[in-house]
Amino acid sequence: NAGVTQTPKFQVLKTGQSMTLQCAQDMNHEYMSWYRQDPGMGLRLIHYSVGAGITDQGEVPNGYNVSRSTTEDFPLRLLSAAPSQTSVYFCASSHRLAGVYNEQFFGPGTRLTVL
Amino acid sequence: GNSVTQMEGPVTLSEEAFLTINCTYTATGYPSLFWYVQYPGEGLQLLLKATKADDKGSNKGFEATYRKETTSFHLEKGSVQVSDSAVYFCALSESLWNTGNQFYFGTGTSLTVIP
């Protein structure tokens, strides 16, 4: 199993550009999520999904879109990049055991810089 | 609402010193509790977990006990090594009937172990 994979590892954008951060998992996990990590602020949830066709907003969803057309993939779209979106982005997945989601499995991250 | 509070860092210890990183939580029900570790340039990895009160999670010499009476899940290690230098995150997971599962992370505690 590859686990959770993310591409690209690094990306530099100019203000106003759009792009998609890719995330895939091969563990057949129902739950997938996107976080951003900023210094001194820990992890903040952007969007999450509990299954194909189902997405919901997290703590900081503005400026980001997601979709979940398959169980495996959960791309994150930046519609019009802003310097405030400079961050490290992590994708994570989880599965349900006895009705409860257990630990999350994280990808290696994408380091995004917006100029 | 749910939240996780962990001691602020950075923490600097000498090799073989005793480590404690405090974590307290607020939850409406009966969450699962986790410690994750993040090494430089990498994603988060699960270090240990506990799913019910009085459970002790342990891994790689680290331990944490789920204390419902004090709503705490403090991380301890008896003798740290240089290789333990990393950022440590306390987290909780709670399954809610109306919003599905939610994960909450502390802000992270940076640990540096010096030889």
The H/E string of chain B reads: EEEEEEEEEEEE
Portion of residues in helices of chain A?
under 10%
Q: For the terminal residues of chain B, how far apart are their CA atoms? A: 41 Å
Mean pLDDT of chain A: 93
**Rg of chain B:** 14 Å
Q: Roughly what fraction of the amino acids of chain B lie in strands?
A: over 45%
Q: Helix count of chain B, per DSSP? A: 0
Task: Briefly note the structural class of the backbone of chain A.
Answer: mainly beta
Main pleated-sheet profile of chain B: 6 strands, mixed
SS field, number of helical segments of chain A: 0
Low-pLDDT sequence parts of chain A: none
Explain what the structure shows.
The complex is a heterodimer of chains A (about 120) and B (about 120). Chain A is built from no helices and 13 strands. Chain A has about 120 residues and is mainly β. In chain A, the strands form three sheets. In chain A, strands 2, 4, 5, 6, 9, 12 and 13 form a seven-stranded mixed β-sheet that branches. In chain A, strand 4 and strand 5 form a beta hairpin. The mean pLDDT of chain A is about 95. Chain B has about 120 residues and is mainly β. Chain B is about 0% helix and about 55% strand. Chain B contains no helices and twelve strands. In chain B, strand 5 and strand 6 form a beta hairpin. Classes of the chains: A mainly beta (about 120), B mainly beta (about 120). At the A-B interface, strand 4, strand 5, strand 9, strand 11 and strand 12 of A face strand 5, strand 6, strand 10 and strand 11 of B.
